[in-house]
Amino acid sequence: MANVISLDSILGVGELKAAAEAPPAAASGCASSSCGSSDGPADMAPEVWEKVKNHPCYSEEAHHYFARMHVAVAPACNIQCNYCNRKYDCSNESRPGVVSEKLTPDQALRKIMAVAKEIPQLSVIGIAGPGDSLAAGGKNTFKTFEMLAKKAPDLKLCLSTNGLALPDHVDTIANYNIDHVTITINMVDPEVGQHIYPWIFHDHKRWTGLDAAKILHERQMLGLEMLTSRGILVKVNSVMIPGINDEHLMDVNKAVKSRGAFLHNIMPLISDPAHGTHFGLTGQRGPTAQELKVLQDQCEGGAKLMRHCRQCRADAVGLLGEDRGSEFTIDQIEAMGEVEYDQEAARTYREHVEGERAGRNAAKAAAQADVAETVGTEVQPILIAVATKGGERINEHFGHAKEFQIYEVGPKGAKFVGHRRVDQYCEGGSGDEDALGGVLSAINDCTAVFVAKIGGCPSQNLKDAGIEPVDRFAFEYIEESALTYFKDYAERLGQGAINAREGQDAVIRTGAFTALRA
């Protein structure tokens, strides 16, 4: 099994403790929180857990271990969104609708086989564009899935759509055993929608303004209801656009919950003028980190929330938070020759992950119980930033981090609430002061940053900014370490040794880092 990528290789040689050292498995499921995609097997029916446990988009825990792949076989689109421009492509940028190469179904299948050989963590194949997966009758989408189901039946099938054509294809989706569908729903009031969608193309006609928004809304709601009635899991994506739909998204959350959506993913608007979108060119801003979190928190209690989305490219490959697509161009795949899917390698990796997971719930529950018993509820939760390469561990050097995962830690536990993309501070052995400023602005709302290692200069800069650098939990699990830190933090707070850090905000830099691995 030379191609099996074990957790040791994800975390670094010597960083993964032996399974024998792990605490025994808990009898119940998720112990950390009930924040949507962080739910565990105790929070849902067994058949649903089987569908989501290895899906990095539908399970926050799974995104630490499993990879996804998007194949760009759907170039046509039937609507225009004011935040989208599919003509733009930059190899170092990541956002929906962007691809470097459009594929035929045959090319997509070859690419999937090549990626699966190199990345046994691969568990999900999705079609998310660069247009709409169901535009033009979904011909390329369903052809790709038909061939893939014969070659690699254990890979999960996923598609994303704006929902306009969805009601026409629900039966086909069910027949192909596609049990994960994402619908982008930005409004349930056409008065709001007319400011997001200039036009749609439906029933052989172009519709504009309020009429377009009304048709789109009706088709989205119908498609959502049809999918959930068939037991297909639906994730709803919504783009938060300050001043247009930000307050309205609470109504969207309630509406999709009432129609059976499994998750609601509220994403920040990407509005860089360089992308050439209408919103970018007209100066429509995206939300700050605090604005996004406040809205997500307000939606708690409605449809369950996804908070670990990276707003991936339509040709993304790898773990969430990275994109290895540039390693698998058409030319590179052609040079590989015929590649067969190694189902045994994938199975072995999944069993490895199950073994790693087995001891996690008990440890999380014990740490949470300790905090609940010793820390009073009057201590306010804090945010911490974590430098990690995956595996739920603190295993990245501060200077090498390309993103920080953000956890909210308090008397009720620790939960993942987002991520912040940054430029790498340390390259070639020296630090970049401009990059350090970007890191500080990205995690400015955090009380502490957890790292495997950090140099003296950035450590002092963090302290000067009021952010505590913490390396004493190097290579340990994130949630247990965060709870241990919070217990100590509360004690120091009570003694007057430190003051609570309040009133800070942070800058969101959207997308996942895109780079060729060494």
Automatic annotation (TrEMBL):
It holds the Pfam family Nitro_FeMo-Co. Its cofactor is [4Fe-4S] cluster. InterPro entries: Aldolase_TIM, Di-Nase_FeMo-co_biosynth, DiNase_FeMo-co_biosyn_sf, MoaA_NifB_PqqE_Fe-S-bd_CS, Nase_CF_NifB, NifB_C, rSAM, rSAM_sf. Pathway: Cofactor biosynthesis; Fe-Mo cofactor biosynthesis. Residues 63-315 form the Radical SAM core domain. Keywords: 4Fe-4S, Iron, Iron-sulfur, Lyase, Metal-binding, Nitrogen fixation, S-adenosyl-L-methionine. Involved in the biosynthesis of the iron-molybdenum cofactor (FeMo-co or M-cluster) found in the dinitrogenase enzyme of the nitrogenase complex in nitrogen-fixing microorganisms. NifB catalyzes the crucial step of radical SAM-dependent carbide insertion that occurs concomitant with the insertion of a 9th sulfur and the rearrangement/coupling of two [4Fe-4S] clusters into a [8Fe-9S-C] cluster, the precursor to the M-cluster. Belongs to the radical SAM superfamily. NifB family. This is FeMo cofactor biosynthesis protein NifB. The lineage of its organism: Bacteria, Pseudomonadati, Pseudomonadota, Alphaproteobacteria, Rhodospirillales. The gene is nifB.
